[in-house]
Design goal:
The complex is a heterodimer. Chain A is an alpha+beta fold. Chain A contains nine helices and four strands; from the N terminus they run H-H-E-H-E-H-E-H-E-H-H-H-H. In chain A, helix 1 crosses helix 8. Chain A is elongated. Chain B is α/β, with parallel strands linked by helices.
Chain lengths: 299, 257
């Protein structure tokens, strides 16, 4: 890398091989801009899915719901169950869901049910908040419930949580795969660009060889060229990415609940800068490998 | 600067030695067959031969631009067959080449073109500036060193090409038809420059088809015919030796050299 800057510090910053003069430089910058932008979009996917998973699990992970069928509802039984549950070590809170909470929960499916409430066979729900989820506390809550209300159903949300996390992790993996694909495409595009430039400038390369230029000297020319162009592309891509994040955040703020929250922490902002830069380094690496390979094919 | 090259050249025992060298491209016929000769330090040779005789191929082997398909080439006391690419590149820095079509880089100024071998050699910018400006002044291009070659005349471009070939004090200087585009008078002046460089210790090989030059300058000739090489030295030719080939035999009849 120090060699790149040493070359750049030269009074004449031109290239021995006229890389900057041929058409296609803008196209390369555009491609790297697009790749950087796509990598940021993929990262937004990974980060927002992480946030969503976290908010879902934090709400459900430390709670257990007990459902008492409508036919078995008795205020005394519920009271004794609540007392029994509160005595279990690790239970922070145990309370019955109010009628209003139940109506709010059902209204998206049934509409306004306040007038019909007494006629509906709605089960009673008890929410138990626990300090930390463990097999022991889940078994204790289940045993207490079975003892006091044998028909009640204990739902520890485990199956649902498991499926949800599986889905979220699958989507995150997909986003990461897209990100890896972007890296691969960038390497391939840069490799192709370097290969075509070397074919165009074959005579100049031959001349440099005759003058005693080593493969690494010539390779540095291409590495420097790709480094500068990819840096341009990455900077534009980062700006576009940040504009997208800003717009997304604004829309999410104006329409809460419709879009996932992607408010970023300091380290996540850093990630959105570092990852496109990594893309630039992959481009430099691809340029170096390709240039060395093509030069070795020359006499 | 040039004197120091002379001092260095004295320590090189073997400048170039071809031993049974053959060259073919791909699966085609051999363009050079069993070529053997030696260039001692400080020598001056002409390379002649008709078109298609393998002159360009021999030149490319001389500047170590390709490896022979058989035989061996020793350059500057080293067997080039066993050197890797980076060692060969280092060795090429001892060779200056003047091409018939100059092969200047059109996007670089005269200064940058001449500075290129020094940059490749890793010399610092301050020294590059002083050496290049001094040499461009010497070849009469001090006033137009920042002009691009396409804006200069053929003669000026040729002087840039010569300056670029000699700037790094090469031990071996190869010139391909250096007088091809010049009139006889300027051509002879250029040959005078090569002789001067040779006297200072630079080994010189010039490919030429100029009858005037071959008749006036009695340097040994490497004569290529159908891929085979004969060495002829006008100075040591004796009466009972095989008939001396006159320059016309390998130059006339529209034959290129």
């Amino acid at each position: 890398m120090s060699r790149i800057f040493a070359l750049s510090s030269r009074k004449n910053v031109g290239y021995d091989v006229p890389l900057h003069l041929k058409l296609g430089t803008e196209f390369l910058v555009l491609l790297i801009t697009l790749m950087s932008f796509l990598s940021i979009l993929a990262l937004i996917g990974v980060v927002s899915l992480g946030h969503m998973t976290k908010s879902w699990t934090s709400g459900l992970e430390n709670s257990i719901t007990i459902e008492i069928p409508a036919a078995n509802i008795s205020e005394d039984n519920i009271k004794s169950l609540l007392e029994g549950l509160r005595k279990i070590d690790g239970v922070q809170q145990a309370q019955r869901l109010s009628q209003k909470d139940m109506q709010d929960m059902l209204s998206p499916w049934l509409g306004d049910v306040s007038g019909l409430w007494d006629d509906l066979p709605v089960p009673a729900l008890i929410t138990v908040n626990i300090r930390e989820r463990s097999t022991l506390i889940t078994s204790e809550i289940t045993a207490t419930t079975r003892r006091l209300l044998p028909d009640a159903n204990v739902d520890a949300h485990e199956e649902w949580l498991h499926d949800l996390l599986k889905l979220a992790n699958g989507l995150r993996l997909l986003s990461l795969s897209v990100f890896c694909l972007i890296m691969l495409v960038t390497a391939a595009v840069v490799g192709g660009a370097v290969r075509s430039r070397m074919a165009i400038h074959h005579r100049e390369l031959e001349l440099l060889h005759i003058m005693g230029a080593s493969d690494s000297y010539i390779t540095h020319q291409f590495v420097r060229y790709i480094f500068v162009q990819s840096l341009k592309g990455v900077c534009i891509g980062i700006l576009l990415g940040f504009a997208t994040i800003g717009t997304f955040g604004l829309l999410s703020h104006k329409n809460p609940g419709t879009l996932p929250d992607i408010s970023l922490s300091g380290s996540e902002w850093g990630l959105f800068v570092v990852v496109p830069l990594l893309l630039s380094l992959i481009g430099v690496w691809a340029a170096r490998i390709t240039a060395l390979r093509v030069l070795r094919e020359m006499p | 600067m040039l004197l120091s090259r002379f001092e260095q050249a004295r320590f090189v025992v073997l400048m170039i030695k071809f031993e049974h060298v053959g060259l073919r491209y791909g699966i085609g016929p051999e363009v050079l067959s069993d070529v053997s000769f030696t260039l001692s330090p400080g020598s001056f040779h002409f390379l002649c031969g008709p078109s298609g005789a393998g002159k360009t191929s021999l030149m490319s082997l001389l500047y170590l631009g390709r490896r022979p398909t058989r035989g061996s080439i020793h350059a500057f006391d080293k067997n080039t067959n066993v050197l890797d690419r980076s060692e060969l590149a280092k060795l090429r820095q001892n060779i200056g080449v003047i091409f018939q079509d100059f092969r200047l880089l059109p996007h670089m100024s005269a200064f940058e073109n001449v500075a290129l071998p020094l940059r490749i050699g890793g010399l610092n910018e301050k020294k590059i500036k002083s050496h290049v400006e001094e040499l461009l002044d010497w070849v009469g291009l001090g006033d137009c060193m920042h002009r691009l070659p396409p804006t200069m005349s053929g003669g000026q471009q040729q002087r840039i090409a010569i300056a670029r070939a000699v700037i790094a004090n090469p031990k071996l200087l190869l010139a391909d038809e250096p007088t091809g585009n010049l009139d006889d008078e300027i051509g002879m002046k250029l040959m005078g420059l090569f002789e001067q460089l040779n006297k200072m210790g630079t080994t010189i090989v010039i490919a030429t088809h100029s009858l005037q030059i071959l008749e006036r300058l009695p340097h040994p000739r490497l004569i290529l015919e159908a891929g085979n090489l004969h060495v002829f030295d006008p100075k040591v030719a004796i009466s009972d030796s095989p008939p001396i080939p006159s320059p016309q035999t390998y130059v006339e009849g529209g034959l290129d050299v």
